[in-house]
């Protein structure tokens, strides 16, 4: 079924990238297992694009290393033949038609499945002889996806592929992507700040915040290991079954905690609620935000 | 052939929803042994869900002895759920009706009953889980 030849297709260790004095990505450790569809999540400016550009060798790391199929992409371009990349806003040459783009791709790529691209484009209802610049955003995204898949990549990287699409085009794009991946077994890493679709489509998660990896792992494990507790005002004392408190909100007599658990929470004082993936990610993003703001303002959290 | 649908507001895991739909189809006889389940690719595409989720659902059905994957061909129904459980349901329903009348007589509203059933199911599951893996 889905690829099993190598355990991890992408590995980053201590990976960092600096623009001037600012670290866009810092001390990033990451292992993406083969055959997963992974979501790279984080607010704008959190380092998602930087991480993807490092993975396709468009950028050279300032610290640490990133390996794709065991190779460092910036130095060794042979790995690139196995990577499909759809950059932000799905750029395609606007004066060329979809049909011309498919033929052009055959000339510049060693491995090129033009039939696959044409089948995909036909299914997506893309007119073959209209310049790409005259297509809708959703259609252009479909063209960019079909072209990336025609390389028959083992790893497909997508930078915010659905950010600028309307809900229908977004759904159609994800349908195309899921259908293609089911056939090819390609490992996918897609960045997004739209959390709603992710729980259905992604089974691996990387949460970036301010250039650092805050959370990574299989979605199933992550969801199983987090819960929301509601109970009496909490002052930091340990709770049985709770490993860490991700985010805490308090009123004068009640506390709402998002926690990572290491066992069942059986204390009857706490009501346990399941968390959706979306709520969980938001808790991580909000949790670290509040902390840094309080530090910056010099007041107690 | 059946077509899967997802309840977007349901908190039930996507793969569990797929398993439940196959089981429901088996219960009412919509699926019978020998029928082919939709292709993983088709399900993934039409619902825009991760193909691994579909594979997981089909694997679960295989483990429960209800389906069998034939490499390169597809996944086929091998078991059935029709019959016994329907008959059981009728009996259980009769018992439940009797119990509901008792609850009404004791002054429980419909909401009280639902809450009681929910919490009891949860407590029973927790007790089961604790028995299975002692802390």
UniProtKB/TrEMBL annotation, chain B:
Keyword Transmembrane helix recorded: no
Domain HTH gntR-type: 12-80
Gene3D superfamilies: Winged helix-like DNA-binding domain superfamily/Winged helix DNA-binding domain
Record's keyword annotation contains DNA-binding: yes
Keywords annotated in UniProt: DNA-binding, Transcription, Transcription regulation
GO MF assignments: DNA binding; DNA-binding transcription factor activity
Family matches, as InterPro entries: Tscrpt_reg_HTH_GntR, WH-like_DNA-bd_sf, WH_DNA-bd_sf
Protein name: GntR family transcriptional regulator
């Amino acid at each position: 079924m889905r690829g099993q030849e190598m355990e991890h297709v992408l590995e980053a260790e201590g990976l960092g990238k600096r623009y001037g004095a600012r670290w866009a990505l810092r001390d990033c450790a990451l292992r993406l297992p083969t055959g997963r569809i992974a979501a790279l999540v984080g607010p704008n400016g959190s380092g998602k694009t930087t991480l993807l550009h490092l993975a396709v060798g468009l950028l050279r790391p300032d610290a640490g290393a990133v390996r794709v199929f065991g190779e460092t992409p910036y130095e060794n371009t042979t790995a690139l033949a196995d990577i499909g990349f759809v950059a932000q806003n799905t750029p395609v040459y606007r004066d060329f038609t979809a049909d011309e783009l498919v033929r052009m791709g055959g000339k510049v790529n060693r491995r090129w499945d033009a039939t696959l691209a044409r089948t995909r484009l036909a299914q997506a209802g893309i007119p073959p002889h209209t310049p790409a610049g005259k297509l809708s955003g959703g259609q252009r995204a479909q063209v960019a996806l079909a072209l990336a898949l025609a390389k028959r990549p083992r790893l497909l990287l997508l930078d915010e592929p659905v950010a600028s699409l309307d809900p229908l085009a977004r759904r159609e794009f994800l349908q195309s992507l899921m259908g293609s991946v089911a056939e090819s077994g390609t490992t996918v890493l897609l960045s997004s700040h739209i959390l709603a679709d992710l729980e259905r489509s992604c089974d691996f998660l990387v949460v970036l915040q301010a250039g650092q990896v805050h959370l990574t792992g299989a979605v199933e494990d992550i969801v199983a290991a987090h819960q929301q507790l509601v109970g009496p005002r909490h002052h930091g004392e340990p709770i049985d079954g709770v490993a860490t408190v991700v985010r805490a909100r308090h009123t004068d007599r009640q506390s709402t905690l998002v926690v990572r658990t290491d066992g069942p929470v059986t204390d009857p004082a706490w009501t346990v609620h399941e968390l959706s993936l979306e709520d969980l990610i938001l808790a991580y993003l909000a949790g670290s935000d509040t902390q840094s703001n309080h530090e910056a303002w010099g007041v107690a959290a | 052939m059946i077509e899967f649908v997802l309840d977007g507001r349901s908190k039930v895991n996507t793969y569990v929803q797929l398993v439940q739909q196959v089981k429901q189809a088996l219960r009412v006889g919509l699926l019978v042994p020998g029928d082919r389940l939709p292709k993983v690719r088709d399900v993934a595409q039409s619902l825009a869900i991760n193909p691994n989720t579909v594979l997981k659902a089909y694997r679960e059905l295989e483990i429960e002895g209800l389906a069998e994957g034939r490499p390169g061909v597809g996944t086929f129904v091998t078991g059935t759920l029709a019959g016994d459980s329907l008959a059981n349901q009728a009996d259980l329903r009769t018992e439940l009706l009797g119990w509901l009348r008792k609850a009404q007589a004791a002054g429980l509203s419909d909401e009280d009953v639902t809450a009681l059933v929910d919490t009891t199911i949860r407590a029973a599951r927790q007790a089961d889980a604790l028995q299975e893996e002692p802390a």
